[in-house]
Amino acid sequence: SKQKGLDTPHFFDPQMQASVRARVALEEDIRAGITMSEFVLYFQPQFNGQQLIGAEVLLRWRHGSGFVSPDKFITTAEQSNLILPLGNWVLSQACKQLAEWAKRPETAHLTLSVNVSPKQFKHDQFVDIVLQAITSSGAPANRLVIELTEGVLLENIENAIERMTQLRAYGVSFSLDDFGTGYSSLSYLQRLPLTEVKIDRSFLHDIDSNASGASIVRTIVSLGHSMGLKVVAEGIESQTQIDYLKTCDCFLWQGYFIGEPQPIESLEKLLVQTN
Ligand code: C2E
Ligand code: CA
Ligand code: CA
Ligand code: CA
């Protein structure tokens, strides 16, 4: 095959050109999707034992013939800053839902956990944007949980602590997503005003497949508890996993086995059934 000249600028690489074109096209599709209201929210139930206590809010994109999964567009949305309008929309919709639930005694206790991407969290206006979503909807701030990943929290820990503390003062809580997959020291994590950690679903998967996986889950749960945090197990796919989590004293559960991400109407039906 033909050797590329050293003076060939890399952006003439046809393969790279194709992937740039694909990314630009996806960006345009996301932009159009926002204006055409193609994005919808799904809600994955969270349980405390048998009791439904809330849901994680998961973005879905109704595009073309079916649903596009967040794994296919969140990264591009993040790279192109489109995550900002998209993320604000998710936050404001979640707050509107909390405000609705607050009106009825059967639903007033439910919480919503919203995923916030690094770029959203680092944005200058982040605290104001969250407070704006809360005040304009009338949502009870103490029912809103913000899920963050380790990387963004530790990139600038002082700044993260300040933002989180400001929102904590209004009652907003914070969950550390994908707990156990990062590499940061516990003394660092301990400085953060978290209320909860979510054990990454890869560890849950390992409960079934090997013995050391099971002991890792037990260790993570007790670690979280010893830091005074709630510990949510996500990615639960079997009764075996539930039984094992009980022996670890972990009763906060999320996963396909007990409830898939679903439209709001079916979540509310589920609430009636489990009551
Ligand atoms: P995540 O925050 O770790 O969310 C949990 C993911 O695990 C969801 O995938 C959910 O559908 C899936 N899941 C739930 N139960 C099970 C189970 O039992 N087994 C397995 N294998 N998977 C399970 P989803 O909805 O495709 O979301 C993927 C990722 O996209 C999320 O991972 C989150 O990082 C991101 N994401 C989703 N919605 C938003 C959003 O509104 N904003 C931002 N910034 N990111 C979002
Ligand atoms: Ca999450
Ligand atoms: Ca997760
Ligand atoms: Ca994740």
TrEMBL record:
**Residue ranges occupied by any EAL domain in the UniProt entry:** 23-275
Coiled-coil stretches: none
Which protein are we looking at?
A: EAL domain-containing protein
Part of the full-length chain shown: 725 to 999 of 999
